Amino acid sequence: MTKDQLIELFQYRLSGIPTISDKSKHPEIISFMIGLAFNQMIGELNAKGYKNLSPYSKLFINIDVVYNSDIDVYYSLLPIDISTLTDVKSGIRKIQSMQGKGLEFAPMDRERLEIIEGLDVSSLTDIIGYTIGKNEDGDLAVDYFGMTSENYITHVKMYLLIPFEAYEDDDIINLPAGQDAMLFDMVVKLFNGQPPKDMKDNHNEIKY
Amino acid sequence: MDSNAQATLKEVVLSTMNLLNQDESEYFRYYQIAIECFRDLKMNFIKGVQITQLPMDTLNRISLPSDCVKVLAIGIPYNGRLWTFTIDNDIYKYTSIENGVDTSESDIDLETTDNLNNVGFDVKGGINEWYYTVDYTTRLIHILGVNRSDVTIHYVSDGISIDGITYIPREAFLPLRAYLIKIVQDYDPTISMVQKSVNRENYNEQMTRLIRFHAPTIDQIRDTYLKTIYQTPKR
Description:
By secondary structure, chain A is α+β, with helices and mostly antiparallel strands.
């Protein structure tokens, strides 16, 4: 089901709920609410230790690998916003070379980087580590650990877990089997718990 | 190297992660622990001697290979066998830097001492003509009396290749994996004591197999006992 179709489906299903005003059933608002619920659902799956999140990730290819001589690091800027999950992989489920051969990549915890750097493994393995964090411009970037001028590659491909709002309208959205009804419930709850229309603080009664 | 008789350290790590259903985010942690476990196995359980030929510097010294943890023998080829040098811990090891060059101390002048005139390494009758001593602190072997640029060293290696792929003998694959699992899970508070006991039992079993694998065969024991290398009649 594409993102557009999903929004239409929710619009149809919400139309039968009288407690939700018609104004709230605008596609933009519905999309926003689905996004909140969808992102929360993926986050909860991840927190529960559900490891196979690949079906919900999207492939991005030809991502540049560039060198920052100031800090002596090879890095890639992410082509899109990602879901920032709490595990080490976060929203980057896999990085590979363009053909998937040669260099291999494994995620690393940036806070444990100094520990790894001080151990034998840092110089004895041919696997490239990567960490996720914001660069000096505040953009999310992937820093590569163990990449040198000798094993450097110019482009990589990434499987990224992106938030609902980052999907294109015609992108197919995969929902975990058996979770679609839960997604609907979550969206309805979000609508029911929406803030009051009149937010003006005039010490009068709040109008709903 | 493409051989069924050998595996790589990386294969052991990946096999362990596969067994424990871990994803690649644990790779570096597992690999480091595998290095430490394999070093222990290599030094204490896996037999095997590393052999290499190394050049001497102008002061007749050899830098120990980086993976050398214990020197077993040093020698030169002679009649197709290794002619080993004799340990002499009195070899003068002190050097000083002169004009930026590592320089050995000069000998004292013995020419006027008649008693020593006929004593030298060219005089036959000693147990050996060439001597060495190992200084593990400075990672140097000091050699005396050898008129040769290269010598052969037999040593115990820690098994880890620092400039290439680390290979491990096939018989050490399962023991190393059992060792790795035991260490990883021993320090994991979420693992039950029952599972930790199972890990320990499995580790002990694998180590027993490894020790048995390297035990001498009954023929080797008999040959040693009967000294059949001298071709005495076998009974």
